[in-house]
Amino acid sequence: MTDDQWDTLLFWMEIWIKSVLWYCLIISLLSLVPAILGKELGFRRKYIDALYLIFNWATQHMIDDKTTKLEENSNEAPRTKKRLITKEAMDELTSPETIIDRNRSISQLGRLRRESVLERPDHVQIVEDVVFFLSSGIEAIVEDEVTQCFHSQQIRGWNLLARTNNYSFMNLGLRMSIVWIGGFAWRWMIIFPWRLVVCIVGCLWMMITMSIVSVIGHHSMRLKAAYWANIVTYRIYTRALGAVVNYHAVENLPMNGSVCVANHTTILDVITLSNHRPYALIGQSHGGALGWWQKRLARCTKHIWFERTELRDRQIVTNKLREHCADSDNYPLLIFPEGTCVNNTSVLQFKKGSFEACDRVYPVAIKYNPWFGDAYWNSSQYGMMHYLMRVFTSWAIVADVYYLPVMHRRFSESPINFANRCKSEIAQAGGLVDRIWDGQLKRTRVKQGQKDEIKEDLAKILDDRLVYKRKLDKKNSYLSSEEES
Amino acid sequence: MGAGESKLPDNAEDIAATCELPIKTVNRLWKRFQELDKEKKGVLDADDFHEIHSFHLNPLAPRIIDLFMDATGHCDFEGFCKLVAVFQPCDKKTASDAVNSPQSKARLLFRLFDYEAKCELHQNEVFEILLLMVGSSVEETQLKHIAKRVILETTGGTRHKIEPEDLVRALDMDTVGVKMSAGY
User: The organism sits in which domain of life (chain B) (predicted)?
Assistant: First the structure.
């Protein structure tokens, strides 16, 4: 290459590098300054509102397309009126889609008792019992309640992401395709790099401030500085995810030295909640990137990280929990009693461990809006990096956090019942389905004891029917003997 | 989920026609079939069924699996669809020879009892099913007694074995139609 060509190349490279640096600087300031001040500029919320309009248009477009196709095929299909799909209506379009309407789950065996009409002849009742089990079995084969909780939630419309497209791409018209391409370019080329830069800013902030805070000698100053360092870190991370979080019933915000339980959808739940106030985390210590992050956090805040072997010993866990809650300087302990990530349509069984260790919990319900991005982390499907890429290239993460009033364990209430009570409160607040199944069932088989329970239940039902029948026979024979006399 | 998984089965339309299922349902069942077929064998065996948690709890699980299995002890996709098709909802307008008619459902119920395919049910077959359902919670003699009663009452006190027509007659067709349907 000639000197001239070198000069031109260097010139353009310099311009390019300078633009990138300016770009990073502007993004950093735009995310850092509001985070430090605790204020929102409002861009993300306006963005969400704009997206609602676009989704509205896209869904209406698809309805029109379908109607036109129907009309092409038959002359009788009525024309759907053009109606504006409100936010509320679009929220309704997010109910979980199931293949079958489940009403014969094996967990409904108790209903057999109510449904069975006791006046019917015995042989019919027995055959109907068999029918119940047969139908229940087929339903479970076609779609079972446990696996269903680990599929991403479907939306009955389209949010212009290829990953949620249940319709074939061939059916998209020209307008839709252009909008989709525009959306794709926006997400991958504009906001994805933006979010990456913000994420790096967040990590740098976390590293620097937490190290500084950990060397502050004065106790109360250190506490204040730690709180500030933590919350700004999470605010920056929230912006990195493009998350918009709405907090409800803020008067129930968990206090220091308490335990907070929430439903678990993703590892990002921590960020969603910590955007409002910092929490102490509890979990297994990992290696790799996650382990690095854990160590950073632990420098200036008290978290509880267990070695894998310690987790087996219930007593150690309980003691550490109690110890943590006893100190009112410690942040509330954030626990996810389900023990696994669930798809945010249901709440699975709460493990009783944390409810054995403490008598007072703050339940929190987290509900993500699936229209803007799928927050659920299916760890068997995606590794963490793949998952983060999906989140960064979604439109946004929109979440509603419902703080519930503190719940106390009642006198002589068992930890399991206490756990179930909290679970149903959370399910109700978040609009989630309350299920009895243990999330670990996705990895292990059901225990024999549970199988035997079902047989015992049915035996009891048969027995009850026999008793009822005897009573009926006695009554009838008494009545007929009365008539004779 | 991974590479090598086809979005649609090759003979989806043939299966939809044979089993009298809409294509959309066939596709959904294909996804489900692949989900159950963890080792990607192309067929399901008994273990695959037992992996389903709420199914494994079902006392009649072994018999239901037998309904799906062919002579080799495996279930291919067509067999899967054929059986599931019986559980489609039906109404008064459903033809009596349709795969989801109440009569067809009652015949499937008969097959559940009749594991030796003898086309008649004796006290023993009914007893076996009862034993599966309640396990050891009820005494065997009592179960045998119940089985005998069931046979007598189903045949109207006339015979000691049940034939398919007896079952069809004894059951209320509306109830069978409703109770043996999974609304999909």
Answer: Eukaryota
